[in-house]
From TrEMBL:
TM stretches of this protein: 12-31, 43-67, 88-109, 149-167, 179-203, 223-245, 257-281, 301-327, 348-367, 387-406, 426-445
InterPro entries attached to this UniProt entry: Na/ntran_symport, SNS_sf, YocR/YhdH-like
Family note: Belongs to the sodium:neurotransmitter symporter (SNF) (TC 2.A.22) family.
This protein's name: Transporter
PANTHER family found in the cross-reference section: TRANSPORTER
Origin species: Geoalkalibacter halelectricus
Key words, A-Z: Membrane, Symport, Transmembrane, Transmembrane helix, Transport
Amino acid sequence: MNQTAPRSLWATRLGFILAAAGSAVGLGNIWKFPYVVGENGGGAFVLVYLACILLVGLPIMMAEFMIGRHTRRDAVGAFVQLQGKRSPWVAAGWVSVTAAFLILSYYSVVAGWTLDYVFRALRGSFSGLPAETIEGMFDGLIADGPRQILWHLAFIALCLGIVIGGVQKGIERWSKILMPVLLALLALLFMNGMLSPGAWEGITFMFRPDFDKLTAGSVLEAMGHAFFTLSLGMAAMITYGSYLNRNEDLLGSSVRIVGLDVLIAIMAGLAIFPIVFSVGMEPGAGPGLIFKTIPVVFSRIPGGFVLAIVFFLLLAFAALTSAISLLEAQVAYLIDERGWGRKRATTFLAGLAFVVGLPTALSYNSLAEWHLIGERTFFDSADLLASNYLLPISGLLVSIYVGWFWSGTEEKEELVAGGSGWVYPLWHFAIRFIAPTAIALVLFFKMRETGLFAWVGSLF
């Protein structure tokens, strides 16, 4: 471990909040949240989602910040310092760092798609073409392995260029640029959506309460999305917490970060769906909405050329702010536990993420017949393993450890230091009982839904 190098700290509270909010705000906020809202009861789902944010997401975010700030270490080193090298709790740190690495390797490929579409928009590739041709562009992209690899490399290089600069001169400096630009782009798209003919239909699609659609599965979806959208369980918030000043108000900062994350998700829905409805199209899910439906919409509306550029720049910035936190979580481990220099650690891990991401870039072309888990491609298998299993397992371990095994005195001191000691009883109850129960339920039903039980059984 590197014992001599002083710990880098955030220069300002604003820089920390923007960096942490940038980590939480990713591609999922732009397309997944609006879609699951519309499919799961509109306003009814939003209420459940907000409750899950408050009862599960916020307490775990505060817990991860506490662990990081208290130990001044990376996610693995934090548990080593708290419990010792031989403690089974160190597994919580390893699971989170592994999740960060795996997610970055395939997330970079998806982010590369957004860079490709930024350049398509700049060239006016969506103008004057029939819908079938525009929709076919995405199929052509994922079938082109070399093109995906090129954009994958470009995105990894962007992450490397920012993280190699360090906490203040790299991550914080660029977060102060990227996040305001992201918010400005989103505000422009939001205003355009609210002024479009489909504004009311888009608002209704997202927020009209339909309790008939609110099932047990909807509640589990809300719990899972509240957890995953905040970048919890992937070592990022523990790492970012380790750069916090001792007098930082953990409650206030966490509330601001969560608030920004929710606000951006809601604004994204109110920017996307009104223009989709204004041209008489039905919203789709996932890549189909972003890379097929939306470009067709921009080709049909006034000012679509400019809006397409703004929209895909927004996606690229959202992806970048999330990805740099994933890389930093891994870099911190090599710096803290192995004594590596930042340049060496960042370059090594960025290069390794690029190599491991290559099968993802080839999952729908050269390696389309290569199945890893069941009938899933490498891309789908990696996403399944990281998002559905590693993240909730990490979050579950953190909530159980902090709620039941960490010193209550040390926890309370972390809150008192920032002037939020009054919230300790409420926070402790949530992290001890509500959060682990909710995550365990999500994990169990995700395992059953994705067929993990059957897959594991088939191995024996």
